[in-house]
Amino acid sequence: MKTKLLILLALLGFAAAGFAETKPVKALSEKEQAAFLSKRTSGSMLGSFDSFCSLLYAMSDVKIHTNSKEINTTQLQTVAPADFYKPTWRELFDMIAIQTRSEWKYDPAQDSWGFTKPEKPKTYYSLEMAKGWDQSDRGLYVGYHPAIAPVGMDVYILGAYSADDPKDADALYKKLREHFAMTFAEGFKKDVTPADMKEVTVNQYPALHFQITAPTGIIWRQWVIVEGGKAFVIVSAIKPEHDAQIYPDVQKMIATFKINP
């Protein structure tokens, strides 16, 4: 099945490339760009950026491209909850940019949306890292770890979300927060519900917190924030023997967590 899918994507790629050569280029005006970006679409992303380009063109007649090998080979992950949310094209492109650590803009010469590596990657949040800790940027999340352990805390950047009617925004954000909280927690507690979680404050942001000891003995903690439509999940996995040393640093770091404009 996987082989057939790869062959299909390859054929779509060739077809899209051939069609792109013969189809006249008609650039979108700024007004048309804005109208397109506000439309909603499926949030599903499949395979690498390169293969997703072909699939997106074949299924939606939407062209995206990049000249970066790093972006092209990045595996994309679906983040938006398919059962109740469809992102705008702007939100989908932003999610791709988060995962590929890129920026995007319309290319009128190709009537396509181009993704490039910026000189300075965009930062979606800030925090004060604890002394002696290190960090690694993994696209969808940033990992933080102390010297005594390979992991300590991760911050997942899950994109931006919007309601068609501003009156529905708060209800949507609450639903998203519960969705992400259960998505991250269900690996540790299959029948988990929001009732198993606590309302807490992370810096100035309302958050949904969940804690459990995994069968392996690892202490799992998570904090889910959806503020102004921007979604983040902070997770921490610590061995019991290291908890007294590592967890205070985690608490200090999340206390400084701040969402960037």
What does this entry look like structurally?
- The protein is an alpha+beta fold and 261 residues long.
- The chain folds into 2 domains: 2-116, Phage tail protein beta-alpha-beta fold; 125-259, Protein Transport Mog1p, Chain A (3-Layer(aba) Sandwich).
- The protein is 35% helix and 25% strand.
- The chain contains 7 helices and 12 strands.
- The protein has a 7-stranded antiparallel β-sheet with strand order 5-6-7-11-10-9-8, with helices on both faces. The protein has a 3-stranded mixed β-sheet with strand order 1-3-2. Strands 4-12 form a two-stranded antiparallel sheet.
- The longest helix has 21 residues, at 2-22.
- It is globular and about 65 Å long.
- Mean pLDDT is 92; it is low at 1-21.
Number of strands: 12
Number of helices: 7
Q: Could you give the distance between the termini?
A: 43 Å
Question: Which percent range describes the beta-strand content?
Answer: 15-25%
* Count of the separate structural domains: 2
- Give helix and strand order, one letter per element, not per position: HHHEHHEEEEEEHEEEEHE
Taking pLDDT < 50 over at least 5 consecutive residues as the criterion, the unreliable ranges are 1-21
What Rg is obtained from the alpha carbons, in whole angstroms?
Answer: 20 Å
Residue-averaged pLDDT, rounded?
A: 92
Largest sheet, described in full? 7 strands, antiparallel
- Largest sheet, spatial ordering of strands: 5-6-7-11-10-9-8
Instruction: Name the structural class.
Output: alpha+beta
Looking at this structure, what is the CATH superfamily of the largest domain? Mog1/PsbP, alpha/beta/alpha sandwich
Q: Which overall shape is indicated by the principal axes computed on the Cα atoms?
A: globular
